[in-house]
């Protein structure tokens, strides 16, 4: 079962802005090959009122089915080469490598700051869970671009949290579609592309900052969204700002959580297999994630079992004490599964030869197998008839005669 990566949020929003006139708000967003931390960026976009950045990236892996429907992108193979294709207009997209696209994105940020006389940028993105930021930081770390990125970016701000704080009395849902319809009066918007989402996030923040700008002018003059100063935007987003160091810490915490979850697959490998029902797999995933969130990995469970091997009650109490947030029923289910694993450890079976794609009911048949079946069926249909008997081992066995012999025997009988 493919599961989205759950990001561990450890940010504390302690970013201080010294001089508000030195900062510029820029909208950004990315399209990814999936919603897991091991997925890749396939499209990165930035937006300001005067300039836009748009670059597609050729990923190493294919885009999964959910991301295809979300972003209307797919990977195709043309001979020896791979390319990105837009599903909506069926056109092949011009793409670059990830390191080239990230370097160009940083250069574009530097150029925007230089053109507007600013020193650092505040990147705004609309997302419910902090996934895009972690994936961007992960890619920057992989190519040693984080130091250069930190020179031009002060931090990240979430448009979802910003809108939720300012509109919680009048709105219930805070998705991009709802916010665009209510605040920007835009219907039937397209949110499949990163360029559109980056523009909408910027416009929503700019619209919500109009109230602050109007309050500063004491209502003497009506202020539109395009007239909101960068100082007002920076001040409004200062309480929602997270630094790059906090995002790096969030990334490392998430990677540690995933490592603990992976170590616990030994305990739940049978329940996580596709031979079990969907309900059992979801239950096993929930138990595994609860154990990992409690900072328990497989080595910790092994040491606890070694210390309390003769005293199962002591082992149960030791494990339950580390899971204070769960109910008694959930604790009992987790402990019973762990004890069953250590008492009767089952070896993890290797994957079938040829991969899961051609194993089981979807196994590919060879051409010789099909030819043999065809020849057997033709021989059976053309040469067998239920009219004669054969004696074998004292039993009468019905053997089919060829159809042409039946016709000849009938003709001979008529002539006689």
TrEMBL record:
Biased composition, class Basic and acidic residues, residue ranges: 368-377
GO molecular function terms noted in the UniProt entry: protein homodimerization activity; RNA binding
Regions crossing the membrane: none
One GO term (biological process): bicoid mRNA localization
Domain of life: Eukaryota
Domain Exuperantia RNAse H-like, first and last residues per copy: 23-183
Compositional bias of kind Basic residues: 354-367
Organism of derivation: Acyrthosiphon pisum
Region (Disordered): 341-416
Full protein name: Maternal protein exuperantia
Bias-annotated ranges (Polar residues): 378-391, 406-416
Domain (Exuperantia SAM-like) ranges: 275-336
């Amino acid at each position: 079962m493919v599961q989205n990566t759950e990001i561990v949020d450890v940010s504390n929003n302690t970013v201080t802005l010294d001089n508000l006139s030195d900062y510029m708000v820029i909208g950004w967003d990315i399209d990814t090959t999936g919603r897991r931390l091991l997925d890749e960026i396939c499209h990165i976009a930035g937006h300001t009122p005067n300039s836009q950045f748009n670059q597609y990236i050729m990923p190493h892996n294919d885009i999964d089915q959910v991301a295809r429907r979300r972003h209307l992108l797919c990977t195709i193979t043309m001979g020896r080469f791979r390319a990105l294709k837009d599903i909506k207009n069926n056109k092949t997209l011009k793409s670059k490598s990830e390191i080239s696209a990230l370097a160009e994105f940083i250069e574009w940020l530097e150029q925007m700051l230089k053109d507007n006389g600013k020193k650092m940028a505040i990147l705004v993105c609309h997302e419910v869970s902090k996934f895009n930021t972690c994936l961007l930081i992960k890619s920057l770390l992989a190519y040693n671009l984080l130091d250069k990125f930190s020179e031009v970016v002060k931090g990240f701000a979430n448009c979802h949290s910003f809108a939720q704080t300012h509109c919680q009395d009048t709105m219930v849902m805070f998705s991009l579609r709802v916010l665009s319809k209510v605040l920007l009066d835009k219907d039937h918007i397209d949110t499949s592309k990163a360029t559109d989402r980056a523009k909408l996030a910027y416009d929503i923040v700019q619209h919500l900052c109009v109230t602050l700008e109007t309050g500063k002018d004491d209502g003497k003059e009506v202020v539109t969204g395009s007239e909101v100063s960068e100082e007002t935007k920076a001040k409004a987003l200062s309480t929602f700002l997270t630094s790059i160091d906090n995002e790096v810490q969030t990334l490392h915490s998430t990677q540690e959580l995933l490592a603990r979850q992976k170590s616990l697959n030994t305990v739940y490998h049978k329940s996580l297999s596709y031979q079990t029902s969907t309900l059992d797999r979801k239950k096993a995933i929930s138990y595994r994630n609860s154990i990992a969130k409690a900072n328990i990995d497989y080595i910790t469970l092994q040491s606890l079992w070694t210390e309390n091997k003769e005293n199962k009650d002591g082992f149960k109490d030791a494990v339950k004490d580390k899971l204070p947030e769960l109910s008694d029923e959930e604790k009992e289910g987790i402990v019973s599964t762990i004890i069953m694993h250590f008492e009767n450890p089952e070896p993890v079976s290797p994957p079938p030869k040829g991969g899961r794609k051609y194993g089981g009911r979807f196994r590919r048949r060879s051409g010789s197998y099909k030819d043999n079946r065809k020849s057997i069926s033709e021989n059976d249909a053309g040469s067998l008839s239920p009219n004669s008997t054969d004696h074998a081992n004292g039993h009468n066995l019905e053997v089919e005669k060829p159809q042409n012999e039946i016709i000849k025997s009938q003709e001979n009988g008529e002539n006689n």
